[in-house]
Model the fold of this input.
Amino acid sequence: MDTLLHFANLVLHIDKFLGDFIHVYGAWVYAVLFLIVFSETGLVILPFLPGDSLLFIGGAFCATGQLHLGALIVLLLIAAISGNTLNYLIGRAIGPRVFNSHIPVLERFLDRRALQKTHDFYERHGGKTIVLARFIPVVRTFAPFVAGASAMTFRRFQFFNFIGALLWVLLLVLLGYFFGNIPFIRQYLNVIVLVGIGAAIVPILFGALWKMVRKHGANAGSR
Done:
């Protein structure tokens, strides 16, 4: 419980954490930023790291001269692209093995036809999914893994991986650079981050709920 509280405090006060870290360790903050973004996008077990707020706050520190804007953008872009690539490769390596494990317990819950449908979906709409997922916490961690597990074409994945990473890093870092040090935004940054996360997740939840309702209605009508 103490660990969860400490992590929640870190997420909600990431600006203070980075400020203190820069003051004590200086340029080592670049390595920390790289590792956090790489881990959030590259390791499916770490979807709750503060990627969006981290980019925004990083841009704000660039505006004060504590970080170099160009170096930060390039570093975070490499972290985001390589993280997604690792996640894709992990999904590509273990996804099909899980579906073809012939383990009775897994066979009951996994459907190979579902995997084929997911592959078809990613070949048709995977580009939009990879790009849009960059801006949705948690989803951006799982999207490249699912793309790999469903055997989305690697070249196609990498093209949209680059586009999504470029838009995500540039937009959030530059927003932080130009607006991150405005007193109102600085004061209510935690609230803004939470509202932003909610605005990204709520439409997805409503969309999923609406599909469930429609599917239930269609099944009831066919009886």
